[in-house]
């Protein structure tokens, strides 16, 4: 696996370095509530089903050579939900870690949590710490779980860190902020998938997805499977990523200044 440091390709290098397989996939796992509602079940049952889908998706991504998978599990705005749903989601973290951590750790998944931990309970913080510490030496795939995460929060905390580090105004640069963002250990997502039919970002990786390829699917997250993943990968392979540059074809004359 490549070194855990920010990868900043120049636009030109990024165009030339384009590969058919994304290094990093980000997913907004949306549609759990509607999946449950269709079955006349409480929304939290949909979230539980969503955890099982997540575990299968991590393994499917690892099998396909994806190095980083980042999933949106709880947004900084999801606190607005009814308190029974919020507490159900917090409880699910504990269940998910005790049910799946051993398996994920044994197959080489490294787990990282991104988001503001200060607002979650000691129990949830403890479960996240356990997941991170038991998998820290794994390198097959890095699963980042965005929990109490917001793209705006991330930019703000990076700026706050820069101030605490004593940076001057002209030291505030793309690189100095990127190295303080919550996911500075990973390259930016190449492919950004949202399930559940909504075509919005909902405050996920705002900074990091500047040049991600977006794929939206109506599939509800609990129903997401290998076929949907492969469909998104095929769509990604068809995309022409230019990063603001232009594609120069082999038979076109180039002019250097
Ligand atoms: C996404 O599913 C999971 C979380 C936000 C925690 P939703 O709960 O938003 O499901 P829908 O969009 O209501 O169907
Ligand atoms: C985004 O889904 C957050 C997660 C999947 C965790 P939401 O369901 O919260 O987003 P909106 O409210 O439809 O924008
Ligand atoms: Mg939703």
Please give a structural write-up.
By secondary structure, the protein is an alpha/beta fold. It has a single domain, classed as Undecaprenyl pyrophosphate synthetase (3-Layer(aba) Sandwich). It is built from 8 helices and 6 strands; from the N terminus they run αβααβαβαβααββα. The protein has helices spanning 11-16, 32-38, 43-63, 83-106, 122-135, 151-164, 174-178, 226-238, and strands spanning 24-28, 68-75, 109-114, 141-149, 191-194, 213-216. Strands 3-4-2-1-5-6 form a 6-stranded parallel beta sheet, sandwiched between helices. α2 (32-38) crosses α3 and α4 runs parallel beside α5 (122-135). The longest helix has 24 residues, at 83-106. It is globular, with a radius of gyration of 19 Å. Residues 1-17 have low confidence and may be disordered. Residues 30, 196 line the site of magnesium ion. Magnesium ion is lined by residues 30, 196.
Topology at a glance:
Blueprint: H1 11-16, E1 24-28, H2 32-38, H3 43-63, E2 68-75, H4 83-106, E3 109-114, H5 122-135, E4 141-149, H6 151-164, H7 174-178, E5 191-194, E6 213-216, H8 226-238
Parallel strand pairs: 1-2, 1-5, 2-4, 3-4, 5-6
Helix pairs in contact: 2-3, 3-4, 4-5
Bound molecules: 3-methylbut-3-enyl trihydrogen diphosphate (2 copies) and magnesium ion.
